[in-house]
Write a structure and sequence with these properties.
alpha/beta, Nucleotidyltransferase, domain 5, 3 helices, transmembrane, cell inner membrane
Length: about 150
């Protein structure tokens, strides 16, 4: 009878934690966060700063290019009281002619109305680059404690 009775082996319980499922969950969450993080910041509202710096003192008045919100450009020469309204091609031709006359001493300041998109300022600077103007600055309104 002892030959027919088989002994059962008792299994010993493991006291270890199986971490494989936790690693799988962690990797899935990591992938989800990596995919969704760039989608959370699609656009950023930017408020352009105003300057409190002192005005630059120059020997001669600069030529001012004004970028309007509707895409037009204005060219204000030092001796003129009102800016001349031009399109991009006309502005490029006029500025190129002025650059030929004044040479390397030509200074151009780019200004824009407060509600003009910054893209219009960049368009004006691109027109000046095509006209081969090297000395370009951005004009701001003096505010705050500027002296």
């Amino acid at each position: 009878m002892t030959a027919t009775i088989s002994r059962r082996h008792k299994r010993k319980l493991k006291s270890e934690i199986n971490v494989v499922p936790y690693i799988d969950v962690m990797l899935v969450l990591l992938i989800i966060f990596m995919v969704t993080a760039p989608l959370l910041t699609l656009s950023v509202d930017v408020k352009l700063p105003s300057s409190n710096a002192k005005a630059v003192e120059t020997r001669n008045e600069p030529v001012v290019v004004i970028a309007y919100p509707d895409g037009r450009f204005g060219l204000k020469l030092p001796e003129a009281k009102q800016p001349e309204i031009l399109d991009a091609a006309g502005l490029e031709a006029k500025v190129a002619a002025i650059r030929e006359q004044q040479g390397s001493e030509l200074r151009i300041m780019v200004a824009a109305e407060g509600d003009a998109p910054y893209q219009k300022v960049l368009d004006a600077m691109d027109v000046l680059r095509r006209a081969k103007v090297g000395n370009v600055g951005l004009m701001t309104n003096a505010g705050g404690n500027a002296r």
